[in-house]
């Protein structure tokens, strides 16, 4: 697979009304050493804690077995043999969709069991790979059918996964007495992409879940999940924080900012002053305190955001750790940076290694870790939780 495009993955979920836990579970893992990514969406039978537990069991097994390069028939047999079965309805307690993106071999493989069929778009048109039936042979599940497909992804391809809460939304209403259905779901996705060819995975999955919620009269009758995968041009972000160890490298730092192609963030007053001086720029301060815990943002021509340093970094790390599909970002400096981080794919941190004496004061809070440690926490979260490409450069 060509590595000149990035794979954006986003999932949005809405719980069954009056439930605090979602019965759908989405898991994803990126395996750098294999140049590979695996995504799983599982829908537990019913809703609430029991559904979540069964979906978690299913998605965890699916992720682990797929990572081990087992054949789809083997994966299907193992999962189906392990899953408990509802004694009355004789159906498994969870359904699932597995997407295995193998960069090295240039192939995407999808395995589905009882989830709505994945929608695959090539540009704004439906792409229909050859789906193959997998008929189980074990005694417990003999005759049960799953389906699988493989294809070579192209730039501007999209894969959209939905749980039953999407296609069954509106069930029993005058407009959709039998539910929204897969065809309406598919046409809605096509229309969104046609009207906005560059629509992000985040925006696309959000609009789909919101539409399902609207179909249900703003009272979710089932757990509702949508995962969007978008193969596209990478969005790049540069984050500079801290002055260089050697002042002779000040010019090098400034030139890095000047020549970088993408969004740019400068964190730290000293860092901002160095870059402004070297580039003969002015920093314009604002006095809008959007976050009572942090100083307001500043602005510099050619830079998206200039903020305070270690306090803002620490808050960015905390927000990223807490962030989920229901988290609402505000307008504060840390929130703005998190928004930029989430909207970017390739994130390059330049970390100055000069010690700031102000942050060695033992009277300061313990969580005020030194800059390098906080940046490493942020980088790990971005890679593991958000599947971002992150590089660190120390200066």
Quantity of strands, as a count: 18
For this structure, the quaternary state is single chain
Q: State Rg.
A: 24 Å
Number of domains: 2
CATH architecture title of the largest domain: 4-Layer Sandwich
What about the largest sheet? 7 strands, mixed
Query: How many angstroms separate the termini?
Result: 34 Å
Average pLDDT level: 90
Principal-axes geometry comes out as elongated
CATH class assignment of the largest domain: Alpha Beta
- Describe the strand arrangement of the main beta sheet, using strand numbers: 14-15-16-13-12-17-18
Kindly describe this structure:
- With 395 residues, this protein is of the alpha+beta class.
- It has two domains: 6-232, Phosphatase 2c, domain 1 (4-Layer Sandwich), CATH 3.60.40; 236-394, no CATH class.
- The protein has helices spanning 49-67, 72-82, 164-167, 181-195, 201-215, 250-259, 269-279, 310-322, 333-343, 371-384; strands spanning 6-14, 24-31, 36-44, 94-102, 107-113, 119-122, 125-126, 132-135, 145-151, 157-162, 224-232, 236-241, 263-267, 284-285, 298-300, 303-307, 346-351, 389-394.
- The longest helix has 19 residues, at 49-67.
- The radius of gyration is 24 Å and the shape is elongated.
- The model is unreliable at 364-368 (pLDDT under 50).
